Amino acid sequence: MSSIAGEAGEDEEAYEYQIRALRTIPSDEASGDEARKLSIEALKVALVSPTHFDFEDLTSLDSVQALRNSDSSEFFELLEIFTSQNLEDYESFKSEHSSFISENSLDDGALTRKMRLLTLASIAASTGQTRSLPYSTIASSLSIPAEDVEMWVIDVIRAGLVEGKLSQLNQTFLIHRSTYRVFGDSQWREVAGRLDMWRSSLLGVLKVIQQEKENVVLQKERELREAESKVNGTSQNYRRAAQQSQREPIDVGLD
Questions:
Q1: Whole-model pTM?
Q2: Residue 6 belongs to what domain range?
Q3: How far, CA to CA in Å, does 23 sit from each of 17, 75, 197?
Q4: Which of 59, 139, 155, 221 is the most exposed place for a label (fewest CB within 10 A)?
């Protein structure tokens, strides 16, 4: 099914069938030649795909994990770099395995581009509560000229890895949402910290709302007392006027 989908140009569907095929391989056959071959094929497709950024579907497979201790361990090392590491690590990998990329018909341009996007997603996720990333940090991390920073930020937003807006005045990228490439203890701690911050903010808002409600109630009570006072004052004036009119003699016009 994967081959047929691939021949029809349905690359995403072909990849999905590759993953399904790998999931059918028993654990005791995960290190076999057929499993190794299928795993490498799927891994290569995922690495060069311009839309595939989450590699958990691969790392969760026994056959892919088996590559770690095989004669194809470089593939697993490369997968780990794209799963959780940065552009600098990819460049180091290429230095250590100078011919690996070309010998395995991998597109270095496509891999480098994806690695830059993933690196930008990682540093955006690591900004913590500041949620602000200077242009200079982006340029340094991605090994790009400063004038190309905005282009790469736009690309990472288009890829769905980060949401935010550029501040040309302050030369910063203001981050609204970022995607974690891996989610472990440190990420849970960061989430806990943000939840505590939001909880404190909400408690502050709730306190302000409660105070405003109390102020509204007090204001209404004052207005009611003032209205009652005015009504009582008008009634008293009316009674005094009525009493005064009763005491005054009435001239009926008789001689």
A1: 0.71
A2: 2-84
A3: 10, 19, 41
A4: 221
